[in-house]
What we know:
about 0% strand, mainly alpha, 2 domains, about 75% helix, MetI-like fold, about 325 residues
Amino acid sequence: MELRSFIFRRLIQVVVIFFIIQTALFLLFRLAPGDPVERMVDPTMTPEDADRLVAVLGLDQPLWTQYAIYLRNFFQGEFGTSFYYGQPVVEIIWEKLPNTILLFTTSIILSALVGIALGKIAAWHKGSRTDTWLTIGSLVTHTVFLPWLALLLIWVFAYKLGWFPITGMISEDVWLDPGAGLWAKALDIGHHLVLPLSTLFLIHFGSSLLVMRSSMLDTLKEDYILTARAKGLTDKEVRNRHAARNAALPVVTGVGLGLAFSINGGALTETVFTWPGIGRELVFAVSHADYPLAQAAFLLIALVVLVANVIVDVLYAYLDPRIRY
């Protein structure tokens, strides 16, 4: 019952915080510099047509009226039409979202699995050459400037060696070929995925490794580890069944929140590799004062992050029976 009560309270908090974020986003976009109408008005358009366009967009209404309409549309599942594309915002979001999920969810899960495994080894062999090299390597990759690393990989593996495409997600010659099957198209996406995935993996796995190593070192000092050793358990059983499970708690938090934040697509990564995802679309929407598209993207990110926080809290209780609410 205590856990259920905690989940209920956290969900109430999520609703309140989400409403605050929703209101803040509405005000920020309308107070920010830049007029979306100026970007949409054709030079040949008459003043009457320009005024009619403003009225259609609802931008001639007082701010509080726009906010009321905005809330009403939100509860009806209507996020408006993109000022730039002229398409419903929902269609644009659903078109770009799978691309972001494919790239960032894959990279975060892969980097977490590798980071946990290597961090466990580094902590178990503390002070050894293996520990030293793993720690140094993770520090270097974790602190490197992401655009620099991305451009370096592009220059070496795409430009110089020609092993991978420089940018994009698909090859037009493959996808426009009527004879290309599903397997050929999947391989084409995988071919384009290698460089951006490698960039994100190198950036993120070091964080998981360092957190796991530090947590594992603290866990190995606990009394129950000494008890497990006294029972005659093998080193592998002590490390994997007793120490690693509890040591992984901080990493679980990082992975859970990382998956949530990955929904924004990482504007830098998607921009460098021209990956057609939410992050790249979000930057474009903000720079072009496309209020409906930018608001919907930010709201999606906020909602996923808030829900992820609740899920991480529940996972904590599951992984560590000592935690009670």
